[in-house]
Amino acid sequence: IFEGLPTTPRSEELVDNAEDGLYVTDADGRIEYCNESYAAMMGYDPDELVGEHASMLMAEGEIESGQNAVSKALASDDDHSSVLDMTLKHRDGSRIHTSIHGSVRRDSSGAYAGTMGVVRDITERKQRQRELEEYRSLVENAVDPMYVLDEDKTFQIVNVAMTAFVGRPKAELVGADVRDVLPLESID
After folding, report:
1. What are the backbone angles phi and psi of residue 109, rounded to the nearest 5°?
2. What is the pLDDT of residues 29-73, one digit of tens each?
3. Taking the alpha carbons of 46, 47, 51, 55 in that order, is the dihedral positive or negative?
4. CA–CA separation, 5 vs 165, rounded Å?
5. CB-side neighbour CA atoms (13 Å) of 45
6. Angle 7-11-15 (CA atoms, 0-180°, nearest 5)?
7. Distances (CA, A) of 120 to 23, 44, 71, 73, 92
8. For residues 83 and 100, what is the distance between their CA atoms, to the nearest angstrom?
9. Exposed, middle or buried: residue 95 (CB in 10 Å: 0-12, 13-18, 19+)?
10. Can you tell me whether residue 183 is helix, strand or coil?
């Protein structure tokens, strides 16, 4: 894996012990190397994954995404890395949402030799985003007027019910001073 690269015991230790998952595949898509973090993220030991096809770790429908990313990289004039959000499959069958910062590898003749990348588990971040979207949708569609003011008492967020309540469009309300919108007796 480190062939042609300057390595030291420290650089190998850094790769092996990185918190993010690291992997290298060959031109056929088989895993040549993965660090302990990547294997543990997927529920395996590194030795169990080396030699296996990377598709065994991909959730249904993700193989095409991976192939498209590789094809796109090979078709471009540069082999810069790209970031791909992909759902992987843990050994127990659960789904892991990941962000993969990957790039293609080429051999000395310039031919495609596989891929390598850094994999980060973003499952919790995706869950928080989903919850935030659900909350935003709930507030936006609530029948009661709702709003958020900043410390200067200007509207930062308003829902549809609030725009209907004051008879002004959202674009006009956001940034407006509450004292210019609500009756004086309501402000207190």
Report:
1. -90, -5
2. 999 999 999 999 999 999 999 999 999 999 998 999 888 888 888
3. negative
4. 66
5. 2
6. 120
7. 11, 16, 22, 20, 19
8. 5
9. middle
10. coil
Instruction: Tell me if 105 sits within 8 A of 115, measured CB to CB.
Output: yes
DSSP reduced 3-state for 158: strand
Report the phi/psi class of residue 175: left, alpha or beta, with left for phi > 0 and alpha for psi in -120 to 50. Answer: left
Q: How far is CA 11 from the centre of its chain?
A: 27
- Asked if 157 and 147 count as a contact pair (C-beta separation under 8 A), the reply is yes
Token digits of residue 167: 């008879």
Q: What are phi and psi of 24, to 5 degrees?
A: -140, 130
Rounded CA gap, 153 and 36, in Å?
A: 52
Pairing status of strand 147-149 against strand 82-89: unpaired
pLDDT tens-place string over residues 84-121: 999 999 999 999 999 999 999 988 898 899 999 999 99
Look at the block and give the residue holding tokens 């529920």: 43
CB 173 within 8 A of CB 158: yes
